[in-house]
Amino acid sequence: xxxxxxxxxxxxxxxxxxxxxxxxxxxxxxxxxxxxxxxxxxxxxxxxxxxxxxxxxxxxxxxxxxxxxxxxxxxxxxxxxxxxxxxxxxxxxxxxxxxxxxxxxxxxxxxxxxxxxxxxxxxxxxxxxxxxxxxxxxxxxxxxxxxxxxxxxxxxxxxxxxxxxxxxxxxxxxxxxxxxxxxxxxxxxxxxxxxxxxxxxxxxxxxxxxxxxxxxxxxxxxxxxxxxxxxxxxxxxxxxxxxxxxxxxxxxxxxxxxxxxxxxxxxxxxxxxxxxxxxxxxxxxxxx
Length: 288
Description:
It contains 9 helices and 16 strands.
């Protein structure tokens, strides 16, 4: 199907993987979940650096968070997927649990202040208020754990993942201090070429619609007529083009199914700037 996607590449056996964050971050955990503990991986400061490194071939894959069940879409990632020549080749999902951790031997009553990413602090606000602990924002959850391990401030603690505690030698004082249970983050794995395997049953596409009434409805009717499950639709402004909007859609369907491919072709004909972002296997929920 060369008119919809370039030629499919084989998976890379011993890949180099980039992610946003540092060792012990949730994105690092997603890398381990997908590729295994021994995979060569590198944390980077920004989502854009990850995408650029993958597009340039400096790293084989990138792992990016794309949405969270509590806080919604991660818009920067959607924009990069729309704008850059990369493809989704896999996905995974993790339940994000925030844990209070400190230097081994610390008691909960010793903790006076805690560092974490603002989102981690917000999710743990009830616990912190109950125990009179001061919240101090930090750039990243895993980075806050590393800071506590390196500086050992008296009365200090961090809120981060279980993996961060293991990496930086901290003791978890109280697990799962966030009040939002079922806090799931979905991660996508990107590559500069598409991949295809027999279990791939999910397709992501982006497109724009014409500026006329009913344009989106006309485009989506092909999905409805084919009885395909549209598991997600997301609308985003097109960067640098005021009042233009793109749509991101996840569809469940088999790339080997001729009727499904025909549905995608019709969707392309009814829309503008249509692009298939990738074909991959829909993830089952996982935990971290």
